[in-house]
Amino acid sequence: PWTLEEDTLLTSYIANNGEGRWNLVAKSSGLKRKGKSCRLRWLNYLKPDIKHGNLTPQEQLLILELHCKWGNRWSKIAQYLPGRTD
C-alpha cells in the first residue's frame, strides 16, 4: 500500500513538474515505485478533480444509457463522466 509520505512526494512532484512521463516521475520524485504505479495512484486517487463517493442517480442513468450504446467499453463511457475514473 501507498504511504502518506509517498502520496505527498508524488503530489509535490506533480505540482512542481506536471503530469506525464511517469517513469521519470517515479525516478525523479524519490519514489521507489514503477511509473505505471505512480500514474494509477495519481489518476485514481490523488488528482484533485476526482470525484469520490457514490454515483449520483443522474450518473447511474447515464452509465446505463451509454452501456446500452457501447457495451463494456468502460474507458469510452468514462469520458462522459468527468471526475470519475474507469
Verbal overview:
The protein has 86 residues and is an all-alpha fold. It folds into 2 domains: 4-46, Arc Repressor Mutant, subunit A (Orthogonal Bundle), CATH 1.10.10.60; 53-85, Arc Repressor Mutant, subunit A (Orthogonal Bundle). Helix content is 60%, strand content 0%. The protein has helices at residues 4-17, 22-28, 35-46, 57-70, 74-78. α2 crosses α3 (35-46). The mean pLDDT is 92. Residues 1-46, 47-86 form the Myb-like domain. One of its GO terms (molecular function) is DNA-binding transcription factor activity. Keywords: DNA-binding, Nucleus, Repeat, Transcription, Transcription regulation. It is found in: Nucleus.
Question: Any chance you could write out the topology, listing elements then pairs?
Answer:
Layout lengths: L3 H14 L4 H7 L6 H12 L10 H14 L3 H5 L8
Helix pairs in contact: 2-3
Mean pLDDT: 92
Helical fraction equals 55-70%
CATH class descriptor name of the largest domain = Mainly Alpha
**CATH architectural label of the largest domain:** Orthogonal Bundle
Number of domains: 2
Low-confidence stretches: none
Classification by helices and strands: mainly alpha
Cα Rg? 16 Å
Query: Strand share of the residues?
Result: under 5%
Terminal residue distance = 20 Å
CATH topology of the largest domain: Arc Repressor Mutant, subunit A
